[in-house]
């Protein structure tokens, strides 16, 4: 299974936004610049996450995006479903019924074993993503890499965070 690039961009963008102050927002352009990605492609995914209730879109010249709920209430599955949609990754096209000399139709009353196996794997994959919350990933700041990322993000916020409050509290 291959997820689109938008999933990675969306997850990292949500992680960055989890560090915003209570009233802070980031523009799509700033987030795209931070990650070195296409602004229009990222904007599409930010809008999808806003539509799914994960992000809040703040209009106006000082507007942008911020989390619509606390980072411990957003799972990786929430983000994947917002970006990729709810359809399973595997879609059975019933190719066993095609080709020359097909067997009788009554043999196909039972679900395809391949489809059943793939859907079982999808349920396991989704169950694992459902367990991982953005807050779990945002808290992983140990070691030199974590400190370097935190420093980079703080410097980025100093330049690009809009509507910044002077206090930071958790979102509900």
Task: Give the secondary structure arrangement, pairings included.
Layout: H1 5-17, H2 28-35, H3 39-51, E1 55-58, E2 64-67, H4 76-84, H5 113-131, H6 134-138, H7 143-160
Antiparallel strand pairs: 1-2
Helix pairs in contact: 1-3, 1-4, 2-3
Walkthrough of the structure:
The chain is elongated and about 70 Å long. The protein has helices at 5-17, 28-35, 39-51, 76-84, 113-131, 134-138, 143-160; strands spanning 55-58, 64-67. 49% of the residues lie in helices and 5% in strands. Residues 167-172 have low confidence and may be disordered. A two-stranded antiparallel ribbon has the order 1-2. It has seven helices and two strands. By secondary structure, the protein is mainly alpha-helical.
Name the overall outline.
Answer: elongated
Q: For the CA atoms, what is the radius of gyration?
A: 21 Å
Which regions are unreliable across 5 or more consecutive residues at pLDDT < 50?
167-172
Give the terminus-to-terminus CA distance.
34 Å
The total of beta strands comes to 2
Average pLDDT rating: 87
Count of alpha and pi helical runs: 7
**N-to-C series of helices and strands:** HHHEEHHHH
Q: Major beta sheet, specifics?
A: 2 strands, antiparallel
Structural class: mainly alpha
Q: Strands across the major sheet, in which order?
A: 1-2
Percent helix among the residues?
A: 40-55%
Residue share in β-strands: under 5%
């Amino acid at each position: 299974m291959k997820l689109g690039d938008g999933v990675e961009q969306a997850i990292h963008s949500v992680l960055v936004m989890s560090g915003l102050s209570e009233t802070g927002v980031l523009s799509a352009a700033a987030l795209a610049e931070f990650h070195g990605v296409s602004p229009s492609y990222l904007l599409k995914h930010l809008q999808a996450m806003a539509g799914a209730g994960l992000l809040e879109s703040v209009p106006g010249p000082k507007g942008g995006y911020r989390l619509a709920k606390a980072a411990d209430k957003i799972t990786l599955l929430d983000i994947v479903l917002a970006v990729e949609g709810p359809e399973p990754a595997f879609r059975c096209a019933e190719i066993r019924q095609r080709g020359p000399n097909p067997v009788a139709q009554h043999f196909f009353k039972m679900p395809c074993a391949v489809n059943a196996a793939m859907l079982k794997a999808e349920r396991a994959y989704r169950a694992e993503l459902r367990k991982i919350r953005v807050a779990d990933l945002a808290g992983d700041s140990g070691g030199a890499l974590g400190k370097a990322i935190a420093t980079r993000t703080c410097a980025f916020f100093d330049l690009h965070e809009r509507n910044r409050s002077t206090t930071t509290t958790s979102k509900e």
